[in-house]
Amino acid sequence: MRNSRSVSFIASLLVFLGYLSFALLAFWRFPGTYSPLSNWLSDLGSPRLNPQGAIFYNLGIIVTGFGLLPFFLGLTSWKMESSRIQNAMLALTCAMGLLGGLAMIMSAVFPIDHIEQHRFWSISLYISLGSAFVFSAAALRYDQRFPRWGLGLGIVTGLVDILSGVFHDIYFLEWITVALFLVYILILGIETRTAQRV
Fold first, then answer.
1. Which long-range contacts (CB under 8 A, 24 or more apart) does 40-47 make?
2. Distances (CA, A) of 25 to 18, 105, 179
3. Residue 1 vs residue 60, higher pLDDT
4. pLDDT at 2 over 90
5. What is the C-alpha separation between 1 and 73, in angstroms, rounded?
6. What are the φ/ψ torsions at residue 105 (nearest 5 degrees)?
7. What pTM does this model have?
8. Cα angle 17, 55, 173; round to 5
9. Contact call for residues 32 and 166 (beta carbons, < 8 A)
10. Cβ contact 108:64 at 8 Å
């Protein structure tokens, strides 16, 4: 139990720092103007648009996707023996999170230049992770060790994810969604580690 809490915490750091580091490397090599008002994040991974930096972004996406797998498996440490509903929500969190991690990896295998495949895996990624975060908030509300503001952040993250799906052609909404994903993952990891000391 303690080990899975530590694994989830370490994986959350890997996801957060790994994504940002590789995205920055790709950004620094992006030729021309790159902006949240006119570019998708995936444009950083386009060999056509970013010939010198695409490899970094796509590698970062793969590292992030692999990091999500132990992260979500580690969340099983929140399991409560006395609550079947909480355990079901937690199982759904883990299942959707694992699917999201795999979809993320595939979105880098098929970068945005392969638009049809990339779109399929990106949509799968947003649906899976958005669902995982909503289920996590539903599961963790049963545990008093998890802060209530953290539950609110999980719900907001899921709602913004849905909003970005409805208004799918607004660039900066994708940026906000990914930022919320990263922050919520980091908070979950920190709180999972903190809970083992309580």
1. 40/112, 40/171, 40/174, 41/174, 41/175, 41/178, 42/107, 42/111, 42/112, 42/118, 42/122, 43/112, 45/108, 45/111, 45/112, 46/111, 46/112, 46/113, 47/111, 47/113
2. 11, 18, 17
3. 60
4. no
5. 11
6. -60, -45
7. 0.91
8. 60
9. no
10. no
